[in-house]
Amino acid sequence: MKRLLLVVAVAALAAHAAYSRGQATDSTRQVKAGEVIQFGDSLTVRVTKSPKSQFSGVKLKGEPVVVVIDFDGGKQGATLSYKLTADPRTSDLHLASGAQRLAPLALIEDFPSWGKDNDKEVEVLNPKESGGGVILTFGQKGSVTLLFDVPAEQAKTALKFSMTLRTVKPKDEQHSFVVSM
Fold it and tell me: Model-level pTM?
């Protein structure tokens, strides 16, 4: 029953975001790993590369690269959306190594404000699913941890993480940024 209510709430927020008349600010910002990115008055995002992997059960062909996205919605909380798929051409979150774009293989969501729904389980992305719409509503802090399967010869090269997200609350805006890892 909780899942059904969550799906209905997500659909309502998606419809609201799609038909909202808020102004988009979509100039891609270049930032460094660990730098805090401010959106509006209360939402901040910080992207870092984790030295260890929490994805021991996920099989890889290359080297694991783990990217952690820390969100802080402040006292007001936040609602944001993005598209997350196993296809690097359609996913709003991807890793670039040279000219090659890589989509995440798996993720872990950790938002303490979700209470019992904060299961922190590893979710492997299905390459056959094309939907991928994600809407996150949270209070205060939380994180999304992404696992990328990087070919061994490219794991030591300069990596760039790209993300496009739409904030719905506190203000309806679209943001894009590239993080030098």
Answer: 0.80
